[in-house]
Design goal:
heterodimer; A: about 350 residues; mainly beta; five-stranded mixed beta sheet; 2 helices; rod-shaped; B: alpha+beta; seven-stranded mixed barrel; 13 helices; about 30% strand
Chain lengths: ~350, ~900
C-alpha cells in the first residue's frame, strides 16, 4: 500500500498550498485534524455489515469525515460519532481496506485506514446418494443414504423422489426411507440436496427402479392373503424373490361347487410359469386339494366341492419351487391368472 | 458287505423276490442274556457311499466359485480331522461330492458349515427275476391279455415311428428281434460295473446286454423276430438302449440320472424303467423327481412298481413314485410253462420238481402205484400217522401221494424207505404247488408235484395200470393265478398316501427275447414287475402312433381309464371282488379299449388321504367326450378289498367304503350318466371310509362306469382309515424268529451286550472309543470300535429322522445326524433278512462333537426323533421319540 500512501500525500500538499494563498485577515488554520479509524468486526465469515468508526478531532472543528474503500468514496459523516456502515459479501472475500479522511473548515485533512478480512463460505457440500435396494420387484421399503461433507459443515440433507421432497435429515448419517407398492411402478429419480450454513447446495441423484409385477403383493403369507372374489380373475406373478408363494383366500359355504384355475401361457403366451396350486382347509394347514398340471399344458385346474363352511386359503407357486426346497424360480415372466368360479 | 445291519447308506435295495413274511410271534420280554447275532452287529468301521451337497445352486454359481467352495470344504474337513475318501466331485447336477465315509464320519460332515446335506448314494439292485427255461415263441400269451395282438392285427398299430428308451442292462444288439431298430444308446457303466462290489464306470458307445434283463424288457416293448415270428407289444418302435447295469450287480442313482437325461436328449418319447428301490416310496427321491420332470418335458415315463409284495404294505419304491410316472403292477400270465411227463395213455402232465430232491432222469419210465386204500380224499396219505408205506411195497415204482396231513418231507421219506423210485405228489386244492422236501436224511429219489385234477386222473387210471415216462417234455398249463395280481407285486400307497401303483400288466411268467450269448434260443421266461412295465411302455407307444398329439402327462389317464379290474386270488380268483387298489391301481391295461374310448375321466385316480382329517371325502371327476357319439354309463361304486392286518403282514378285509355320486347312493344301485358328443359331465363324488375297517387299514375301490356299447371306465380311489401318524416309526424286532425285542436297542459290542428300549440297567454301560477285539457268541472274532450305537427298526417310512446326543439330564448336546425321506425296513424278523432285506438300521456315534473334539468323559444318552410322513412338525403327536439308556464315555 505504500505507493497509495505516497500519492495521497502529494495531493494533500497541493491543497495546503492553495489554502495558504486564499486566506487574508485571520491567521490561517493550518493544523490538520487528528483521526483514527476502526472497523467492527474486523473479520467476516459470513455476509454482513461492517461498521466503520472514525475518531476525529481538530483544533477548530471537524467538518466531516469521508469514508473510502480504496479510492472510492462510500460515504461521509459530518457529525460525531463519525460512522459508516457498509455491507460485505462473499464477493468481497479477501482484505478490504477502508480509509477515512477527516477535514476541518480550513480544508485541513487527515486520514486513517483500517482493514477487514472477509472470508465467506462459497464451497458447496460434496454429496452422494445410494438406494438400497436399487430396484424393487416386490412391495417394500427402500432405504436411501446420503454421504455428505463440507469444509465448514453440512447443515441438512433433503431427499426428493422425482422432485418431491420426501424427507430432511440434519444429522449424519443422512438417511431416509420410503415404501413403494405396485402403484409406484416405474423409474424413480432420487435426488438429495446437501446444504451448508451459507446455503451452498451440493446435489446428487440416483435411480430406483420399481418393477412390481404382481399387484397382489405383498401376499406371501396366510395373514396377508389376497381376497379372491368369485368370478373375478386376478393377475399375479411368481417372482420378486427366489421362492415366491402367493396366498389368496376366499370364504365358502358347505357344498359350494367351485372351480379354481391358475392359467399361465393361455393368458400370457410369454409366461414362463408352471404353476403348482394348493387349497388349504380353514385350519390353514390341511391340504384339501393340490394340483400341478390338470389344466391345459402345465396349467392347473381344480374342481372341488367345499366340505365345510369357512375361509379357505389358496397357495400358488411354481412347480420348481414346490418340487425342490433348494431351487429358486424368480422370473418376472412367471405370470399367471387365478380365477375362482362357481360350477 | 454281508452285514445285515447297515448304516443308512444301504437303506434302499430293490426289487427282490425274496419272501420275508411275518413271524407272527407274540411280543415277550426278552430272556436275560439274549445276544445279538454276530452278523447283526453294525460294522461301524466299514465306510459306505454318500453324496455331500454344498450350499449354492450349481446353475447359478460359476465353475470357479464352485471349485473354490469345494476346496475350502476340503481344507476345513482336514482341519476337523475328518477321514473320508472323495470319489467324485459334481458341479452341474449339484454342487458337491460323492465320498466314502463311515456312518459317524458322515454325520460329522453333515454338520459342517456350508454343507447343505448328506444323502446316501442309493444303490439300485438289478432286478433278479426268476429265469425259466425257454419255450416256443408262440407261447407269448401275455399279448392276448392286454389286447396287443388285436392292436397289431386288427387296428394296424405297431408303434412305428415312436422312440422308446430302455434304461436297463442294455439290449442284445445282435438279437434278430432288434435288427436295425436300435437308433440310439449308450453304455454308462461297462461290463464289470458292480463286479465284486466295485463300481467304477467304464462308459462306451455300445449298450450291448450281457445280463439278459434289458433284452427281455425290450423284447416285451417291441421285439420283432422274423425268424421265429415273435413280436412284442409294439413291434414297430425304434429303441434307445441306455445301459446302467453291468453284467451283474447294481447301479447307482447318479448313473441312472445321467441315462435319463441322455434318453430325453436323444428324443425318446417313452422311457421304460424296470428298476427301483423297494420301500423308498417317496416322490421326493432323486430318481422319482427326475422321472417326473421328464414327463413335464413331454416324455412318457413308465416304471415297475416293485417286487416286494411279500413284504407287505408300503413296499413300492423308485422312479415309479414320481407323480406323473406310470407305475405298473404285475399280473400273472394266464399260462405257465411246466416240465411234463407222459403217461402210458399218451397224455402229458405238467409238474414242478420239489426242492430238495433230484430231478428225474430223462427217459426214466416207472409204473405208478399208490398206498392201498388211499383215495382222492384221504387226508393224511403217506403220513407216518397213517402208517406210512409197507416196507418194500414201492420198490421200483413211482408212488402217487395226496397232499395233506403231514410235511412233504415226511411223505417222501416214508416212500423212500418203502423203496419208491419216485414220488408224484398231487395237490389237495386247486392249482399247482412248488413243494420242498429238504430234510435229513436227504431225499434221494425224484419228487414232483402235480395238480389236484391230474392227480385224480392218474388215480383213476391206477386200477388198469399206468406208467410214467419222464421224457423231458414241456407243457403250457392254465395258470391258476392267471389274470390275477402277482403275489410278488409291491403294495402301495406312497409314503404320502398318493395312490400307487397306477395300472397293471402281465409280469408273471413272461416269454420274451434273451441274449443269444446267454441262451442260444434267444428267448426266456422271466417274472417281475420289470416285465409288466414294458407291456405298458409298449401300449403307450401304440397310443402315440395312433394319437400323436397325446401329451405325455395325459397318457396315464388314457390307459388307466379303460383298464380292467383284477380279482383277488385266494386259492382261486374271487370273481367280483377286486384285489387291493393299492396293489393293482386301475387294473390291467386294455389297449383296445384305450384306443377306442373317447371319454376321458379326470382325475384318473383319487387319493383320499387319512380319514381322521376327512371323515367324508368330496371329489369331482369330470367326464369329457372327445368324440361324436353320445355315451351312456351306468355308474356304480365297486369297492375293492380293504388292506387290514399290519404293514408287514397285510390281511384282506371286506369292510368297504360307501359312495354317493351327484347325491345318489351308488353302493347298491346305479346312476345313469349321459355324456353328450364333445360335451362334459361332472361326477360329484362323496366317499365315506369304511366304518367297520380297523384303524390303520388302507381302503379303496372304484367308480365303475359301465357302457353297453363302448368302453367301460374305472376311476380308482384309495384312502387310509384313521390317523396316519399313529403308524409306528420304530418297530420291535425278533432276532430268532420267536421272541420279540423292544427295539430300538443300544448296543455294546465290547461287552457283547445290548439294551432294549425301556430296559432298566443295573450298571451304566461304558464306552472307551478304542478298537477292541471281540469274540461274538458264535465264535466269530471282529475288531470293533468300543463305541455306542443304536439299532432301530424303521417300521414305516420317516419324513425326517434326527439323531441326537443328550447329556444325562436329557439336554441336547449335539445333533449327530439328520436324514430325510427314509425307507422303512423290509422285515421285523432278523431270520428273514438278506442282503436286500433289512430288519434294522445302525446309528453310530464315534464319540466326537460337531467341532471335531472328543466329547468329554461323562454320562450321555442317544436319541432318535422321527417326524412321520405328512406329519406336522409343530404337533408333538407326529414325532416319535426313542431315548437310549444313560451310558458313560470313559476314555
Amino acid at each position: 500500500m505504500k505507493p497509495h500512501r505516497t500519492l495521497s500525500f502529494a495531493l494533500l500538499s497541493g491543497a495546503l498550498l492553495l489554502t495558504a494563498c486564499s486566506t487574508g485577515s485571520t491567521p490561517p488554520d493550518t493544523m490538520a485534524p487528528k483521526i483514527t479509524l476502526s472497523a467492527s468486526p474486523k473479520a467476516l465469515t459470513k455476509p454482513g455489515s461492517v461498521k466503520l468508526t472514525a475518531d476525529a478531532s481538530d483544533n477548530v472543528g471537524v467538518s466531516k469525515v469521508e469514508f473510502y474503500r480504496g479510492n472510492t468514496k462510500i460515504g461521509e459523516d459530518t457529525a460525531a460519532p463519525y460512522e459508516f456502515t457498509t455491507t460485505l459479501t462473499a464477493a468481497d472475500n479477501g482484505t478490504v481496506t477502508y480509509r477515512a479522511v477527516a477535514s476541518d473548515a480550513a480544508g485541513n485533512t487527515a486520514e486513517a485506514t483500517t482493514s477487514v478480512t472477509v472470508n465467506v463460505d462459497v464451497t458447496k457440500p460434496t454429496v452422494s446418494v445410494s438406494a438400497s435396494p436399487t430396484s424393487l420387484t416386490l412391495p417394500g421399503t427402500v432405504d436411501f443414504t446420503a454421504t455428505a461433507s463440507d469444509d465448514r459443515g453440512v447443515t441438512k440433507v433433503e431427499f426428493y423422489d422425482n422432485g418431491k421432497l420426501i424427507a430432511t435429515d440434519a444429522q449424519a448419517p443422512y438417511t431416509a426411507s420410503q415404501t413403494y407398492g405396485f402403484a409406484d411402478n416405474g423409474q424413480h429419480t432420487i435426488s438429495v440436496k446437501a446444504y451448508d450454513e451459507q446455503g451452498n447446495v451440493g446435489e446428487a441423484t440416483t435411480t430406483l427402479n420399481v418393477a412390481i409385477s404382481d399387484a397382489n403383493e405383498p401376499n406371501d403369507s396366510p395373514a396377508n392373503a389376497t381376497p379372491l372374489v368369485i368370478g373375478t380373475a386376478l393377475n399375479g406373478t411368481i417372482a420378486g424373490q427366489g421362492r415366491d408363494f402367493d396366498y389368496f383366500k376366499f370364504d365358502a359355504a358347505q357344498g359350494d361347487m367351485l372351480k379354481l384355475t391358475v392359467k399361465s401361457v393361455s393368458v400370457d403366451p410369454a409366461s414362463t410359469l408352471d404353476p403348482y396350486v394348493r387349497i388349504l382347509m380353514p385350519d390353514g394347514k390341511t391340504v384339501l386339494e393340490k394340483d400341478d398340471d390338470s389344466g391345459a399344458g402345465l396349467e392347473s385346474e381344480i374342481r372341488f366341492n367345499v366340505p365345510v363352511a369357512g375361509t379357505y386359503t389358496v397357495v400358488v407357486t411354481s412347480f420348481d419351487i414346490y418340487d425342490d426346497e433348494q431351487l429358486t424360480d424368480d422370473r418376472a415372466t412367471n405370470t399367471y391368472q387365478i380365477l375362482l368360479t362357481r360350477r | 458287505m454281508n452285514k445285515t445291519a447297515k448304516t443308512l447308506a444301504l437303506l434302499s435295495l430293490s426289487l427282490v423276490l425274496g419272501a420275508c413274511g411275518q413271524s407272527g410271534a407274540p411280543t415277550a420280554t426278552a430272556p436275560q442274556g439274549a445276544l445279538l447275532p454276530a452278523a447283526a452287529h453294525a460294522n461301524n468301521l466299514t465306510p459306505s457311499r454318500w453324496f455331500v451337497e454344498l450350499e449354492g445352486d450349481p446353475t447359478a454359481l460359476g465353475t470357479q466359485s464352485i471349485g473354490s467352495q469345494q476346496a475350502s470344504f476340503r481344507a476345513q474337513a482336514q482341519s476337523l480331522g475328518l477321514h473320508y475318501q472323495e470319489v467324485r466331485s459334481y458341479n452341474t447336477l449339484f454342487n458337491g461330492f460323492s465320498v466314502i465315509a463311515t456312518g459317524s464320519e458322515i454325520n460329522r460332515i453333515s454338520r459342517m458349515p456350508g454343507v447343505l446335506g448328506v444323502y446316501p448314494v442309493h444303490r439300485v439292485d438289478l432286478p433278479k427275476p426268476d429265469l425259466q427255461a425257454a419255450l416256443q415263441p408262440q407261447m407269448f400269451y401275455a399279448k392276448g391279455m392286454t389286447g396287443a395282438d388285436i392292436a397289431q392285427n386288427e387296428l394296424g398299430l405297431t408303434g412305428k415311428g415312436v422312440k422308446v428308451g430302455v434304461i436297463d442292462t442294455g439290449i442284445d444288439v445282435d438279437h434278430p428281434a432288434f435288427q436295425g431298430r436300435i437308433v440310439a444308446g449308450y453304455d454308462f457303466v461297462g461290463d464289470d460295473y458292480g463286479k465284486d462290489g466295485k463300481y467304477v464306470p467304464v462308459p462306451d458307445d455300445n449298450p450291448d446286454d450281457c445280463n439278459g434283463h434289458g433284452t427281455h424288457v425290450a423284447g416285451i416293448v417291441g421285439g420283432n423276430d422274423p425268424a421265429t415270428g415273435f413280436k412284442g407289444v409294439a413291434p414297430g418302435v425304434s429303441f434307445g438302449a441306455y445301459r446302467i447295469f453291468g453284467c451283474e450287480g447294481s447301479s447307482y442313482d447318479d448313473v441312472i440320472l445321467a441315462a435319463m437325461e441322455r434318453a430325453q436328449k436323444d428324443g425318446m418319447q417313452v422311457i421304460n424303467m424296470s428298476l427301483g428301490s423297494a420301500f423308498e416310496n417317496w416322490k421326493e427321491t432323486p430318481l422319482a423327481k427326475a422321472a417326473d420332470r421328464l414327463v413335464k418335458k413331454g416324455v412318457v415315463v413308465v416304471a415297475s412298481g416293485g417286487n416286494s409284495g411279500a413284504n407287505g404294505q408300503y413296499s413300492m419304491g423308485g422312479p415309479t413314485m414320481g407323480d406323473n410316472v406310470i407305475s405298473v403292477a404285475s399280473v400273472d400270465n394266464v399260462k405257465v410253462d411246466l416240465d411234463s411227463f407222459t403217461l402210458s395213455d399218451g397224455s402229458k402232465v405238467g409238474y414242478y420238481v420239489a426242492t430238495g430232491a433230484p430231478e428225474p432222469t430223462k427217459g426214466l419210465t416207472l409204473p405208478i402205484t399208490k398206498k392201498p386204500g388211499s383215495t382222492t380224499t384221504t387226508p393224511n396219505d403217506g403220513c407216518t400217522a397213517s402208517g406210512g408205506f409197507a416196507a418194500g411195497s414201492l420198490t421200483g415204482k413211482a408212488v402217487l401221494i395226496r397232499r395233506g396231513g403231514c410235511t412233504f418231507y415226511e411223505k417222501a421219506s416214508n416212500a423212500q424207505k418203502a423203496g419208491a423210485a419216485a414220488v408224484i405228489l398231487y395237490n389237495n386244492a386247486a392249482g399247482y404247488i412248488s413243494p420242498t422236501v429238504a430234510g435229513d436224511p436227504a431225499i434221494t429219489i425224484p419228487v414232483v408235484s402235480i395238480s389236484d385234477t391230474d392227480g385224480a386222473k392218474i388215480d383213476s387210471l391206477l386200477g388198469s395200470g399206468v406208467s410214467v415216462t419222464f421224457d423231458g417234455g414241456k407243457i403250457a398249463v392254465a395258470n391258476p393265478t392267471g389274470n390275477t395280481i402277482s403275489s410278488f407285486s409291491s403294495i402301495g400307497m406312497s409314503a404320502e398316501l398318493e395312490l400307487k401303483p397306477d395300472i397293471a400288466a402281465p409280469g408273471g411268467n413272461i416269454y420274451s427275447t434273451y441274449p443269444l450269448s446267454a441262451d442260444p434260443s434267444g428267448y426266456a421266461v422271466l417274472s417281475g414287475t420289470s416285465m409288466a412295465s414294458p407291456h405298458v411302455a409298449g401300449a403307450a407307444a401304440l397310443m402315440l402312433q395312433a394319437y400323436p398329439n397325446t401329451q405325455a402327462k395325459d397318457m396315464r389317464t388314457l390307459l388307466m381309464n379303460t383298464a380292467s379290474l383284477r380279482w383277488f386270488y385266494s386259492g382261486k380268483p374271487l370273481e367280483g371282488i377286486p384285489d387291493y387298489v393299492q396293489r393293482q391301481g386301475a387294473g390291467m391295461v386294455d389297449i383296445v379299449n384305450a384306443y377306442e374310448n373317447t371319454v376321458r375321466a379326470t382325475p384318473s385316480k383319487l387319493s383320499l388321504g387319512e380319514s381322521e382329517t376327512f371323515a367324508t371325502r368330496s371329489k369331482v371327476v369330470v367326464l369329457k367326450n372327445t368324440g361324436p357319439r353320445r355315451e351312456v354309463y351306468q355308474v356304480t361304486h365297486f369297492p375293492a378289498l380293504t388292506i387290514s392286518g399290519t404293514t408287514n403282514a397285510p390281511k384282506p378285509s371286506t369292510a368297504v367304503a360307501s359312495m354317493t355320486i351327484n347325491g345318489t347312493n351308488v353302493d347298491d344301485g346305479s346312476l345313469e350318466v349321459v355324456v353328450p358328443p364333445y360335451g362334459e359331465v361332472e361326477l360329484n363324488v362323496t366317499i365315506t371310509p369304511p366304518a367297520g375297517a380297523a384303524d390303520n387299514s388302507q381302503y379303496g375301490g372304484y367308480i365303475s362306469l359301465k357302457s353297453a356299447i363302448g368302453s367301460s371306465l374305472v376311476v380308482p380311489y384309495g384312502g387310509f382309515k384313521g390317523d396316519y401318524q399313529s403308524l409306528k416309526s420304530f418297530g420291535d424286532v425278533t432276532l430268532d424268529g420267536k421272541t420279540r425285542l423292544n427295539f430300538p436297542i443300544l448296543v455294546d459290542d465290547a461287552a457283547d451286550d445290548f439294551y432294549q428300549e425301556g430296559q432298566t440297567l443295573n450298571a451304566v454301560p461304558d464306552y472307551t472309543f478304542k478298537k477292541v477285539e471281540v469274540t461274538y457268541s458264535d465264535g466269530t472274532k471282529a475288531t470293533v470300535l468300543d463305541a455306542p450305537y443304536l439299532l432301530a427298526n424303521l417300521a414305516h417310512q420317516i419324513r425326517t429322522l434326527t439323531f441326537e446326543l443328550l447329556d444325562a439330564n436329557g439336554n441336547v448336546v449335539d445333533t449327530l445326524g439328520k436324514y430325510n425321506y427314509l425307507s422303512r425296513d423290509c422285515t421285523d424278523d432278523y431270520t428273514k433278512t438278506s442282503s436286500t432285506c433289512t430288519a434294522f438300521e445302525a446309528f453310530d456315534w464315534d464319540g466326537k462333537l460337531s467341532n471335531g473334539q472328543d466329547a468329554p468323559n461323562g454320562l450321555y444318552q442317544l436319541r432318535l426323533r422321527a417326524l412321520k410322513p405328512l406329519g406336522d412338525e409343530s404337533n408333538p403327536a407326529h414325532t416319535e421319540v426313542y431315548t437310549s439308556q444313560r451310558f458313560a464315555v470313559v476314555r
